[in-house]
Amino acid sequence: MTAPAPKKVVLAYSGGLDTSIILKWLQTEYGCEVVTFTADLGQGEELEPARAKAELLGIKASNIHIEDLREEFVRDFVFPMFRANALYEGLYLLGTSIARPLIAKRLAEIAAETGADAVAHGATGKGNDQVRFELGVAALNPALKVIAPWRLWDLTSRTKLLEFAEANQIPIAKDKRGEAPFSVDANLLHTSSEGKVLENPAEEPPAYVYQRTVDPEEAPDQAEVVEIGFERGDAVSIDGERMSPATILTRLNEIGGRHGVGRLDLVENRFVGMKSRGVYETPGGTILLEAHRGIEQITLDAGAGHLKDSIMPRYAELIYNGFWFSPEREMLQALIDKSQEHVSGTVRVKLYKGSARTVARWSDQSLYSEKHVTFEEDAGAYDQKDAEGFIRLNALRLRLVAVRNARAKG
To answer: Partners and quaternary state (predicted)?
Structure first.
């Protein structure tokens, strides 16, 4: 039995060629009403042209949603993730991954607000984003139908897409008539570039791929120092000036970008099973991660810190694979947030030609005791004789194993 066609669809709409084609395709394929949603996540592009394009394609003004979500993005998604020091496969700061649940959340909310029975996205059938969008929507409103045109239509080539656009009077930017050299996704946390000139991992990325950072070799010869203040694991100030979450990340992007900080060339394992090569620029996030680890060094207990480090790969994988709204991610988040109760203080980071290094850190919540660790006279703070019993107890099982092994050989 064929599923009924949707009556109203909320489309995640960028205003670009692909999602404009999707918009028209939804109208012609289903004869449905389309609501567009465009999120400002700090991608650095003017979004009003998306409104004009949607209107040109017949979308009434009340059905066009353009929202500035930068503060919510950093406060409720980026910062909680950074409390965990999350890195996918030990390197990737998850810039694209962490943006998708917020978009999915707003798609579901706008669908409820407008009475839509479906949502649609422009992610392809080869990537991770289709999974992230659809798992998010399923967790928030399982009754919604999700339409993924790239898995449904026969517009399987750039030529067919352009022919469809021309047949339906969809404006085509001149540079879209040839194939783009690579694909770019950007938000306040990072830029992600992949495809075409980047598909061969044996070839170094061309210089023009990088958009947010200068070449570290051409960065200033003078180092720059920045001080980041933290409260309960979240950055709250730069050089003593309190700022909002999005303003902090914006400022760190500017500072890190001019020093070539945060470049990553990675071949990663996609959730769908294939390997892909991406080039990422995360200047502000790289500084933030370094600083957060710096403040944890003096405020986080060893047992708590080591436990956090042990669960981090699982937490990062959940975000990468689209399980932000899963019970297990929320459980891990509760543990992580508990660990951050005393992670407050200031970290000084030095930036120089692509590197970001913690050079000083201090806190009223510090566990660091100079009188215990000093090589000078400690005034009885630590009795070195205590170490003998400590070592004997920890050596006991090793002695028993050694005796057993010697007996077996004899």
So the answer is: Homotetramer.
